[in-house]
Amino acid sequence: MGQNHVVATLKNAIAADRVAHAYLFAGSRGTGKTTLARLLAKAVNCTNPDPAMRPDNTCENCKAVNENRFLDLIEIDAASNTSVDDIRNLRDKINFSPSQGRYKIYIIDEVHMLSTAAFNALLKTLEEPPSHAIFVLATTEIHKIPATVLSRCQRHEFRRVSVDEIVANLKYIVEAEAIQADDDALTLIARQSAGGMRDAQSLLDQLSSGGDRITLEFAQQTLGVAASQFVLDALSAINDRDSARGLESIHAALDAGADPRSLARQIVEYLRGLMLIQMGNINQVEATADVKKQMQTHAKSFSTGDILRMIKIFNHAAVDLRGGWQPSLSLELALAEALDVPSESLQIAVSSSSGTPSQPKPKVVADTRQGISASRMADQPQVGKEAAPHPVEKSAINVGDIIKAWKRMSASLPKAQANLSALMNSARMIDMQGSTLILGLASDVLVSKIDKPDQIEAIQKLIKDEFGADVSVRCVVTNAKGKIPASVAQDGMVAAAIQHGGEIVDTQD
To answer: What is residue 315's three-state secondary structure?
Structure first.
């Protein structure tokens, strides 16, 4: 189902008796690769005198394939038969003539799992196959298949099955099985399956085991999918710059049974819909009329750049493993980053409680010949010709050494402090002012999460153990995004400007 472009090609090849000796079926899981390979095996061995009618499901060979007793159909799981010896064993047996049909069909599933030596052994067989042998290689990761193997196969790409096609199949199943299910619930199942027909059928089987009618609410609760209202609330909070309401929306969804990664994927799907609306493709958005109306409002509220940025942020949260022990952490970090609006202004160590206005963003020219190593730019109004930096007390600890050791120190924390480790890795700015370590984070939310006595004490202990010095720690909000080039001194003026939001616009050798 949903692979008409492949089916039509194979039908024409069978009708014309021009079947290839090696096929490669590539596509995501549950799209019908192995099923079509079995159908091909049945068709080439069907005894119906009219090639266009094969397979007819009435001849002895077709019945044998249907009942899994056709000796000339050999299925090999490459995931558990990866060695060169397994392929050599296949090569030794392939020269024997078919027992029942005209062709021996070898289906090698997940072929990308074969070792390099096994691929080389298989290549020889693909180069000079016996006239009675047909290979069908199936894979979900075609990029792992050697080019030499690809060039010897007829390649067919299996696309993800559309939501409408999956829903149509699910409706057929529920009618045939006398299952009571709402259309909205079937649509949700189709969307959750991500284009895999097998996944959709498995989810339907899971929900039907409850015995009651499959409603949208029941499907959402069982599959751990947040209702669209939670997603709408979260996006509205981001639009209003209301971090508290955004966190409440996320936690309300999680408390209702939503899976964090599933919620992140739903937010990405919603943002994708906004992008499609902005591009004039509202017909491609799969949503109810009420949700589409809200999406059109949001599409006008956000810029295209904001939407693209948030898609990347929440898509990362959907696959982030840092929050394994704390499920909500990845979503909370994503929300905090989404609320952080990229600005052209320079915010110099503005704490969450400070009202200091931001200053124009400095344009820094780095002169690598002179190896700039001036003192840190703490609390100065701007960097440029008009205002020279006011020197402050230089710390005994080199800030460059702290930056280099930062990831190692965060990684040394025990698993019980994985939350702190993730927050430390979210720091955008690391600076020393006297004996005070300044940590710059993207938003008030992140500052409030890290600025706690036990966590500050843990950071101080890390510094003490690493450098043998006692420091105090201050957490502030910063918009610093720049990376310090290797050619720039880590504790110099240029590094300080970058960490405080500056931007290198030119480098003179």
So the answer is: helix
